């Protein structure tokens, strides 16, 4: 036995001891279909361990999670651990990375090491089960005290609830894309515009939308019976208790199938300390826009002996998810006034200004058939309607550009190459695509990544809806204008309508990973792709380039 | 003609079958599923020639690209079935807002006639729902129909739907009392109230008339060439 072999054997012995030091935390989830009554009517929904949402799963970083999932449904199911770094066959997406759906009546045991801490969540990745109740919070505590200390710690999990099944919802949208839109433009709205801005301007706007065969009211595809906080309706009023002066950590999780919110707690500043489970430099805000599948951890310090209302208002202003922070149970704060709903504008269709925000970019407006000249009144219409949350003057709303990683990014290499990710769709037929393809298309091609390489993903949203794009298995870093070592990690990136956004990625997790829009019915309609991280000998498989894709016009972005 | 039609029919069903043949969960869950939509309208009213009943259906079953499209209409007058059309088509998505359609239409009233159908169905700019179909009858006669409607709202449930339909024939078809050129037209508006998206009662105001030689043929036969009809109806979505 030479020296090298001895060292190698020694190391091997050491490595085999390490897992023995780590604790194993076992959990059991039972997925069942049961009658529930949330809105006043009893309907069959999917429960996890008997409830909606499922239990809060808590682990400690460094431990091994062993999670037994029992499928009592009459259809296959799955559980995806949203935001966790783990082996692909434990990621829980049927047909991807070696994981297969859990058949009806059978068990599956997930087993993986917890390599991170933070606020995450879990949900089904089968059909529309997530809409029907198959979701819950997952918290990984730091092994030693983390950078965020609080006296109280609450999960605030938002979800959207409809009595209909997910299959009924998507079937209805496929019959008629505006099936759930009860805030469409009316003849009266047109005459109001004529009165306010003159016939020419009103007609110009109406005619642009008419020519595109689209609606400026498409902020959400589904109207919900209720928005829930931790499974409770506004009447049931989920309440977090505090003593005045305490630091309260709220772990916001948007587990909604389709609903985005503007979140505020009138009377309290929120200090955002984590985004998507990853620590950021604390940033104080009055409100934040909350895309589907994102998480934000905030610290609030209520000083007064009163009730504060947690208000998450849907961006189509169809309602609120309401909860309370109070010194004792049974208290309720005032419900904030409903905000004005914004209309989408031509900017949300990509007919916008250059990214530097100065010159109008006329030349490449793909859909501007009218060829009219821009007047001053048009300039107002060039602001994104989607992004306008009607935040009161003097209030600070969180922006992606505010996010700065708390610790230095390990990999600060510039990207070796750029991959364009074109988000496309057709609201009228409710078809949604990535790079011009549905996941079900026979021509669908996965995105190949060389193991270890650093790439830029450039999203280009050619649709009039925002798409919260979620990459499984790896965090991306937002190119949000912060220095390279401060770029924040995200698992879900909300790409605004008609806009571009880029992120960096280190392909350091080998295997197949799902990559999709986290609006459930967009994914169900095909807006899903697959990333394959592998060692490639010589030539990489060819990716379709954007010029191959029928995406209409072309933008001069960088 | 009939033989060709039958082959067409088989080809159309085969392609539909192939399109949905490899369906599995993964495929269905992410863009490959089959959906359907059927609109059924039934209305009864009266015009200058007495009572009139009308029923029509229009809808599809299939995926995003390939669909089986079924439509038809029945028209009754004083308890008699006066017009009956039954259509079966293969519908293929060819552009964002447009389907190309190919199929068969069979009329049992006023005269038993079969047609090969080629046309488009879709959404024109300014949100005009548009159907344009060319017909070749089993007698070799060529005709064409254009139909457009729009959907406008006063409130979120109460609104109106203006529509028109024009029929053209390429030759005189005495058998069907049709003269060459624009033969029939209708123009109307439906005032509707959506109780929900699947149940929509409405009042229909319709003006219909015959044109040119077709009008002359009607006059010579002692029939009216124009008519006003007011009806109460209900539209269902399945």
Compact overview of the structure:
By secondary structure, chain A is mainly beta. Helix content of chain A is 12%, strand content 33%.
Structure description:
The complex is a heterodimer of chains A (558) and B (238). With 558 residues, chain A is mainly beta. In chain A, 12% of the residues lie in helices and 33% in strands. Chain A contains six helices and 31 strands. Chain A has a six-stranded mixed beta sheet, with no helix packed on it. In chain A, strands 11-19-18-13-16-20 form a six-stranded mixed beta sheet, with no helix packed on it. In chain A, helix 3 crosses helix 4. Chain B is an alpha+beta fold. Chain B is built from three helices and 13 strands, in the order H-H-E-E-E-E-E-E-E-E-E-E-E-E-H-E. Chain B has a twelve-stranded antiparallel β-barrel. In chain B, strand 6 and strand 7 form a beta hairpin. Chain B is globular and about 65 Å long. In chain B, 22% of the residues are buried. About 4% of the residues of chain B have low confidence. At the A-B interface, helix 2 and helix 4 of A face helix 2, strand 1 and strand 9 of B.
